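Please produce the structure of this protein holding S-adenosylmethionine.
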Amino acid sequence: MNKAKKAIKAIFEIIKRPYLLNTIIEDEHFKKAQFEKEFPHITHFKEIPFEYFLQKEELTIQPFAFLGGSSLATDLGLLQLLCTQNSVENYLEIGTWRGESIANVAPYISKGYTLNLSDEELLELGLESDYIKMHRFFSKSIQNVTHLFGHSQKYDFESLRTKFDLIFIDGDHHTEAVFNDTLRLFDFRQSDESILVWHDAKSDPETPRYEVLLGIYRGIPSHLHENIYLVGNSLCAIYLTHKPKWEKAKTNKAPKQYFEVKIKQKNVEY
Ligand SMILES: C[S@@+](CC[C@H](N)C(=O)[O-])C[C@H]1O[C@@H](n2cnc3c(N)ncnc32)[C@H](O)[C@@H]1O
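Below is the modeled complex.
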């Protein structure tokens, strides 16, 4: 089909089903163009190599279900390392799902809070009951974890009467939602040095995800944009005020190191 025929067919399809316009607006090419227009001075992303955090440490990632919708092992490892290296006491995350990320950091913090839409809200959104049942699977019985329920854009974080050393944003990944979560939670940092981590800021460990990055850069005051980095070998972006070693994010880099991964099966005790 030639381009003109394709364009006419596309227009007819959009008239019949206007929601198809969302597919264009949410498309990564569209988001990238928006990002470049809004932040023309950001010509490349700064990336902190994973080994900057890992150094000589060995990590045990558990629980790790190796199932759909999970973070990568390196994402969970990054959270653990940030907790131990920065003596994180209070940790907050948006997006509990199976409770894998909060369960991975719980041994390294004093108190963890994890917010998710309630089961009722998920049901109202038309989500399957089997999916809903899996929420909190790994975290429900952990002593130092408090489960919070509600929509991150409406939740009254003031009511917790605490601020956080590390905030992990992993709820709704649409630009507007990431923007709102970032903007709101920035005020709940314990101090100027407190850390924010966003999940899914890349669509794979080498590819920036503009849908999420646009929300991050809009949500952080522009004079602090210099503190935003991607993290190598992970899907995360991070807000870090001390000046870490970084390099230009780039695809198809030759690996400078590789990882040894041992897999051990464990019985579910949750
Ligand atoms: C990607 S999962 C979180 C994964 C989890 N952090 C982990 O790594 O194990 C995202 C979760 O965010 C929840 N969610 C989506 N939008 C939300 C919102 N606006 N407020 C609170 N939770 C939300 C979804 O129900 C889903 O369980």
